[in-house]
Records
---
Amino acid sequence: MGGRLAGEVVLVTGAARGIGRAIAAKAAEEGAAVALLDVLADQVAATAADLQQTGAKVAAAVGDITDENAVRWSVDQLVDELGPITVLINNAGKNAYADATKMTVDEWDSVFDVDLKGAWLMARQVLPAMIAARRGSIVNIASIHAHLTTAGMFPYAAAKAGLVGMTRSLALDVAPHNLRVNAVSPGFIATDLLEEFFDTIPGSRETALDAHPLGRIGTPEDVAEVVCFLASEAAAFVTGANWSVDGGLGIRYA
């Protein structure tokens, strides 16, 4: 298959649904072999089956990105099926709606484990092979909350800001090995997590729609297009960047 990602092996975390599923589908369309990783066993298997029907080369694994042993086992399984990972998309994440004065340490850790530590564990697992081959790209799915946020979502913004910072640090460290690391910061995208946000924050749906210069909520496919571009050689001179995919929301003065 031709396409911007022909010959690549693309690993997508949180691939069972939403943005992750859309990225996996776009990567397959662009010619990549696609490795799917998620904790949702039935849903990730269904995503794999759907992509295989398109003729794509696909493998799926069930694993927890916050557990370093599970990360190692899952990546090893996927590499055995598809070959060395050449593109990592750190998409798995979780929302947070906590009171800073009442949040427990365990609740804090659960947010940072998924939204930040898991991305590092995944990168740590795949980078040695990328460095040895002097070939590879990582795209971290951050959020508009990394630089703009709203009340009631503590400490999600801190975790996503950390992910953008990690992106910059990794980009500098691996650049001598011909590797690139970038971030994408989606705004309001039509996913289950967004519906959870709308259900949690009264009036947020109407406020969001009114605030968007483009007048609509984004789609997972909108994000997938940008992610696959950054992952590909079409973006060969882009590293350490954080691209907003937010319908212009972040440029508003008020």
---
Amino acid sequence: MAATVTSKHPPAPAGLSPGDLLPAGRRFRLVLVLGFLAALGPLTIDMYLPALPAITGDLGATAAAVQLTLTGTLAGLAAGQLLIGPLSDAVGRRLPLLAGIGVHILASLLCAIAPNLAILGTLRVLQGAGAAAASVVAMAVIRDLYTGLPAARLLSRLMLVVGVAPILAPTVGGLVLRWSDWRGVFLVLTGVGLALLAAAAFALPETLPPNRRRHGGALGPIRDYGRLLGDRVYLGSILVAGLAVAALIAYVSGSSFVLQDVYGLDEQQFALVFALGAVGLIGATQVNVRLLRRWSPPQILSRALLAGVAGSAVLLVFALTGFGGLAGVLVPLWLVLAMVGLVMPNAPAIALSRHSEAAGTAAAMLGAVQFGVGALAAPLVGAIGTGAVAMAVVVLGGMVAAALTLWLVVRPRHLPVEGFETAVAVAH
């Protein structure tokens, strides 16, 4: 049986999180493993993006129908987390994680031999459900070990590893398409799943000891979800995270058609442009670590969403007028991606700081909302069209909705900041 991190240490002193008691080398390995686990979902989503036009032609489908396979993946990620989160609170983190990665491996292998779009779409739902285990357990482990500002800092570092996925995934997908067809992408995802299964089995300890597990029976998860839904700040924070992800998914789902079909980029050029946008997103997550030395997560979140709304409004204007051509679309789009990079660590940090007793369930609802709202964004872009305007409309809508939710529901100026202040004092 794997060792349990928290059981090896006494309770953390005031102002410290349990994870602060871990040796530096062990913390580094933990972040690395958690980052690769959290990256499984983005890898599953992004690696086949360069192949979307090829799938459209090969399976004789419309662009909107092929985009629904992306929606299926997001739906699987959302629904899977709602099941796996409470399960991980009841039986520990490792068992649901290993089972979920196994499901992802099987689904990826079957996607490679899918004969039509209907079967491919169904398998993508199953693939997403398997990847959900990696996403929710990674977040729950962070909450097991950290809270407040330390959690926000760790999430920022985690995004550095997670951010490699959107950079590498389309590039790897484009390279695979040079020697294989779109089915080869799913064979590569099968190999990725096998590698992550081995890493999780041998390198990730159990962070939820038996005395902290939930034993409420079948009604326990329902009570936990009810309590979470009754927390205005938690609910508003996860909606902010989900709506920001919706803006990101609108870009992800529409970019291959906009950049390749409208602006004429080939598969490798698209992968490069996509990677540059991901660099901006990752860079923002790392700048966030420094920003946290001066401002709290709610303060950073407020300013990031304001800038994100401004950037997405400029994107829509340039898309409507054609001003600046390709650069006129990419520059404001990259600004929006950077602001999403600031939202991604801070909104979850606020949400997860409130429910340590059900960290898996809280992380599950966070992930479900993120991917569930994102699942709605992908077909919405396809329904409006395949041009830059359609993508820009949904990006702007997501950012405006996120900002309104923050200011009207979360109300960051009224949040208690004691936990963040304590973490700041310890950090300095």
---
Amino acid sequence: MSQLIECIPNFSEGRRTEVIEAIAETIKSVPNVILLDYSSDYSHNRSVFTFVGKPESVIEAAFLSAKKASELIDMNVHTGEHPRMGAVDVIPFVPIKYVTMDECINFSKQLGERLASELSIPVFLYEEAAVSAERINLANIRKGQFEGMKEKIKDADRRPDFGAQEVHPTAGVTAVGARMPLVAYNVNLNTADLNISKQIAKTIRESNGGLKYVKSIGVMLEDRNIAQVSINMTNYEVTPLYRVFELIKIEAQRYGVNVIGSEIIGLTPMNALIDSAKYYLQLEEFNEKKQVLENCLLSS
């Protein structure tokens, strides 16, 4: 039985096509790895890659892509709407087939140790791989971003899990972890008022008493001159997409603003979309295992 894991590294580059393609080619060059998807956002200045394969191959692809990013991205000149602290900002591993979460945690540690020893990039372990409760939430690690990390990393309680207490001069710091599949989901508003999207993000996120398993921030899409609520949904089974979408619509109306669209970044589990289809179409007694064509084909 072949093991299969997924890796979704986020790189701090969404504008220079030549850099993005160089990272893609690096991943594609690794045997037994399939690059499923990669997408970029100009305003966020960030690219998200998704690839799968055998654990040892995926770990190698993650390392080589991080190495390539460290050579081509200088965080000293990087600007963008999305919080970031490194050229490769985060590298999560997700168990897909015949792999346990504990094994993905060990894969995180293997990669983290290698990034630190071979590339001199300090690494923090996060999510399921975190060694302390404070580091489970990526936002806690990333406070201060690249600029603030230069001083914060010197604090006793900010010592990285791997590497020296000193940021890489151009590549910054990287978070490596293990987690279940999440949905990266953005909702766009017909306003250029960034404060509105920030207030809505504050209302819906779990850390401020909002929806469980929802992380969100308000950002500005400068190229479109609109505000956006950018969301990471870490458990779509407990908090589905449609619930987040509807709450954002309700909150937006308080400010006289409307939702003009939404987007999913990278890949998403099929059931996350089926849940929303069932809700909006008001499907009765719908059975996704028996009534979704692809599910029937896969099980036959």
---
Amino acid sequence: MIEKVLTFAQQYQLFTPDHQIIAAVSGGIDSVVLCDLLAELNLKFAIAHANFGLRGEESDADELFVKKLAKKYNVAFYSEHFNTKAFAAQEKISTQMAARTLRYTWFENLRQQLNYDRIVVAHHQSDTVETILLNLTRGTGLPGLHGIAPKNGYLIRPLLCLRKDDIYDYVTTKQLIWREDSSNETTVYQRNKIRHEVIPVLKQLNPNLEHTVQQTAAKISAAEILVNEYVQKVREQVLRTENGITYLDIAGLPSSAALPLILFELLQPYGFSFELTQSVIGTFAAESGKLFESVTHTLVKDREQLVITAKNLQAFGSYEILADQKELIVPDLQLSLTHLTATNYKITTGKKVAALDYNLLQFPLKIRTWKEGDWFVPLGMNGKKKISDFLIDEKVPVNLKDRVRVLTSNNSIAWIIGYRLDNRFKITDKTEQVLEMKIK
């Protein structure tokens, strides 16, 4: 099976021996097999685990299991906790869709932050069948009909050449241990309903269902290439991006019956559905100002153009800072970190600098956006203050409050970044070492 995966990876140019890879690992049977195959192939990889907090202690046990798995393979381990239900409620989407959006956003941020070459996930042929059927029930374009691609930018899926039965054979032979997600058995989720109730019926009609669907998906993929070549020419004519904002020239779009499909292909990378795309077309002859939202982006019709901006998803995730880290570069924030002895250290005044007592900090530190209920002890004071009240006192505009981030040490807020240090972490005459953080 190792040779089969390697041949598949070479066919689609998924990775090279020199690539640094982030493996997305839940702890389930598929991702456990993925880790073992990466190790067998002697690839350089780290493990990333997303804890969505949906199953309480079971979710935390999954995280601990994956952490031990990373130790087994002697690779780096990264984890992130998400307030998935809050994000799902805000965007009015399913919990599964919320989890998918959050984890892939985090994986890509992690890849950029740590300079990795690939993100690898453990999808296999059975996932392709489920995805195509699910997409058909929801309505889909060509990408939905070819299911899951082996490669999508930096994201790769080397197990797409395997069936679920192959996965079970492998863990049996290698005697691997994995975690069972209890939510996989419930048919409340749409994908599970297809997996447990629909696919077994289809396999009665065609026992070779996975292979047949995979072949059909390959044909659709070839047809999609032709469509994409045309759409790319249109994209080059009508789309431009400046300072993170994308502009689409309405007048440059072709006037044909295929316009809904063409515009959908242009807007789909920003999360807009075909139905929403048709609504956007309906505003072309109307006045400016109509706004549309996807899970990840906002689109506004402004005179003869569409203006597309990304939403800020950082409120539902965080970034870690390690003890020996020198710099942190994330969207909208760049920090330099310097570890110094306290002898003769002179504090630099200003909101863009924080000098903290190094020995009072517990690493890894975390940076996240503030949330309701957060409190700290403002520098120079001994009592607690809610951050919401602090931001009111600081007269921070309402539309900028959600951009305010905090530095935490073991869940205690040490610095409202760019505003105020916490009195508990300040430098005193007893301080021996200093962590100086500067906003660049």
